[in-house]
Structure formats: structure tokens, C-alpha cells
Amino acid sequence: WTRGRQLGGRSLTWGGITLRLSDHEFQAAHRDGHGRAWPIRLADLAPYYSRLERLMGVHGQADGLPQLPDGDYLPPLPFTPAELHLKHRIGHQLGLPLIHSRGFRLHRSSAEQPWPRSSSPGVTLARAQASGRLTLCCGAVASHVQMAPGGDRAEGVVVVDAERSSRHLLRADLVVLCASTLETLRILLHSSELVRSGGLVDPSDSLGSGLMDHVSCARFFSLPGLPEPSESQELSGAGSCFIPNTVNLKGEEGLGFRRGYGLWAAAQRFDPPPWLKRRPREALGFLIGHGEVLADAANRIRLDLGRVDAHGLPVPHIACRWGANELAMVGHMQQRMAAVVAAADGVLLPLQELVKLPLLEPWLRHSPAFAAAAAPPGYYVHELGGAVMADQPEGGVVNAWDQCWGAANVLVSDGACWPSAGWQSPTLTSMALTWRACEAAAARLRGGGAADIQTSAGASPNLAA
Q1: What strand order describes the sheet that includes 175-177?
Q2: φ, ψ for residue 405 (rounded to 5)?
Q3: What is the DSSP letter of 460?
Q4: pLDDT tens-digit series, residues 411-423
Q5: Which of 154, 177, 238, 249 has a CA that sits 20 to 30 A from residue 277's CA?
Q6: In this structure, are residues 419 and 396 in contact, taking their beta carbons and an 8 Å threshold?
């Protein structure tokens, strides 16, 4: 489990794969009966997805797949010869699609653009600074949301000065918690009525429960007899490919698990020099499965009030494990990976049997990232849930506009608000949720209705002003 405490947060470290969720994910609970459906649909986020794709310069291709909606893309990066071979073979023999990945290219830093457009320092923070209305408080660690007398509205956030350990209240008409799932949940829990008198009320009594990640496993492979790429091909969010989810799309299919998964793939994009390859005339590739994890109340985060960190703040304690559904899904992932590589006349092997890395081989043998089994929760840094979105107060912590049911001027717009995980990388959707929630909150503030609770998803408010 990772927390990123730096200016720019997770926007500096995400991998740059930008996949939209579909109504298949938003409405999964209605289809298979597990958990809660989202109170919003693809149509609610589609305009924000499009804005983000254009803002960041996302590459991709319209593939017409209902389970993976198309977006507003720059042209896709070309497949390598090995990826074209893989696409042809699995399409012909297995009936599986292999599509261009959707994401952004590797950033080449320059004096004009030192930060990538996928990061907040690269675009949004720079715009906010240019407005003259932004004050950055680096070195200030959020302790909790301070509730105003009456308990149904926040008056600001109490922060700890990391150098002096002093505390002070930053007053605000609107508080937006988008600190990444773990940190947002820590702040919410430390703000709650369970910890402090007059604290934030959670009518659903679910705050901190239902923590999710994506269940993942990785395999490496080698393909013989293929031509070399005409030029070096980058490995990035745009420079790679996907076998999108094809399971459980029409209800339960007797597979032994609910929901679905996708396989991120690349070949001939990270080949070392021939003298470092154990199979020098073969192309190297990988397959990494990302699968949806079911929300489970037993998977949760709470505060350990008996332990504090260097800033005097209670330490978050995480309890999370894979269930039978996730383990069955990983078994299916592994079978599919084996079938995909076999269809391309390749061989699955551990990375240390494909590449000569004598100093790293002991670590590779024991690293969860390179094991055939599922990596533990938290390893792939896609944590979600714990303050979920619902259409009624008893169903979750926030409403369809990401407002806390217990305090309408507090928004929770990152992964913490997700009722279900989907299989797609979560960053694009969390960005879209944040843009939508903040735009609506700004409209309410301009109209003098900052404390109004919105109770249904519906259409966005009129933001022409």
C-alpha cells in the first residue's frame, strides 16, 4: 500500500493507461446481484472523459466495443511485428480482440514543458497558479475536516505544519478530498463523529468498509521467428496493447466467478541487447491481468488510535485479502494467458529465464510483481472504495455528485467514492468524477446554494455562467 505525499500527488506516478468505464461496470450489481450499482451512468461522465482525453493528449483507436467505450483520441501508436502476430493469431484461433492501448506517450522534458500533461504540475496547477487565486501549502499535512457548529457543514480543514508540528484551521466554503483513497479515508475517519464530538456524520455507517484493489498477475513470454521492429518502440500507456474483458458480459456464464478482467500486453518494446537475452532470436513480451475485485465489508481501513505517525496523527490500519471470487478469476487469467501465448507459438517463462540479470535474479524469484500467482492487495496501487457513492444516505457516504451526506460542502471525488472497482485502470475515471463534482459545486457556490444536497445523478446543472 502506497501513499504519495508530494506536490502533484498520484498524478506524478500513474502509468498513463486511460480506459473509460462502461455501463457494464456502472450497473454490474443489477446484473449479478453483488454489492451496489453506481448512481451514475456513462452518459454522466462522458463529457468529462472527452475533456480529459483532449487535455492530456490521449492516443488510441475507436474499436466499437460496448464494454470499453471509445473516446477522443490522437492516432494510436503502431503495433510492433510481434503484437501484430499476436493480434492475428488470437483473433483467428481464440476469437479474442487485441486493441491498441489507450493512454499517453512517454514525456520528453523541455524548458517549455518540464512536466507531462498527464500530471497536475503539467497542466492544472499551472493554470490555477496563473489565475492568482491559488495558495499552495506544501508541508501541511491534513489532519481532519473541522465541522461547523450544528454538525451538517464543514468550516475548513485542520492541518499540521510538518516542520513545526503546529496545527491551524484553513477555513473554506468548500472542501474537496481527492488525496487518493487511503489518505482520503484516513482524513474522513479522523473527521468522523466516532473520533471527535460534533464530527462528520455517516448515515450509512459504512465509512472505511468495502476497500478494493485490482487483483493482478503477470507472465512473461517469448515468441520465435519474428522480424525486428523497423525502429525502437516505446513502452508506455499509449505504446502497448490490450485484450479487453470478454467474460461475464451477458450474465453469469458458469465460469465460477463474477465480473471481469483485461490483459495489458506488449511485445518487442523492452527487449534488451541480444547478449543479455537467453533466447537471443526471440521477441520478449508480457501479459498483466487486471481484474475486478468484489466489494467486501470485511476489507476495510480503520484508524489505530493507539499509534500515531511523525505528525501526531493516528495511523491507518488496513485489513484486506482476496476472496474466493478473486482467486477463481486469477485462475482463469492464467489459463487465458497460456492460451494466448500458445496460439502465437510462444512459450511462457519467468523473466529470469528470458533475460540475463545475475544481480537481480534472486530478487526476481521472490518479487510479487514477477510471480505467476496474484500479487497481494495494494501491490498495483489501484485501491478504491471505503466512502462510496449512493443515491440514498443509508447506501453510502456520498451522493451522486460526490457530496458527503453528512456535510454537503465536503466532496469526496477520488477512488474512495467508487461502489465497485471495474477492471479498468482507475485514474481517468477519478479525474472525470472530480471535474464533474467540482464544476457542479462551483455552480452551486455561484448560485448561493453551496449546502444543497443533490439526490440524483440526472443531467449536470446549467453551468453557462
Answers
A1: 175-177, 407-412, 403-404
A2: -60, -30
A3: P
A4: 999 999 999 999 9
A5: 238
A6: yes
C-alpha cell at 136: 499552495
Q: Output the furthest CA–CA distance in the chain (Å, rounded).
A: 72
- Which amino acid, residue 137? C
Give the other-Cβ count within 10 Å of 325's Cβ: 19
Question: Residues 156, 413, 57, 5: what is their CA dihedral angle, to the nearest 10 degrees?
Answer: 60
Distance CA 316, CA 304 (A): 6
DSSP 8-state class, residue 159: E
Tell me how far apart the alpha carbons of residues 58 and 56 are, in angstroms, rounded to a whole number.
6
In the structure grid, which three cell numbers stand for residue 96, read together? 479474442
pLDDT tens sequence across 118-166: 999 999 998 999 999 999 988 899 999 999 998 899 999 999 998 888 9
Kind plus residue range of the DSSP H or E element containing 155: strand 154-161
Query: Distance between CA 336 and CA 341 in Å, rounded?
Result: 9
The residue ranges of the chain whose pLDDT is under 70 are: 251-253, 449-465
Could you count the other beta carbons within 10 Å of the beta carbon of residue 402? 28
3-state secondary structure (DSSP) of residue 126? helix
* Residue pair 385/181 in contact by the 8 Å Cβ criterion: yes
Quick count: other Cβ atoms within 10 Å of Cβ 447?
12
Q: Give the C-alpha separation, 91 to 71, whole Å.
A: 23
Q: What is the spatial distance between Cα 322 and Cα 317, in angstroms, rounded to a whole number? A: 17
Q: What is the 8-class DSSP label of residue 293?
A: P
8 Å CB contact between 244 and 60: no
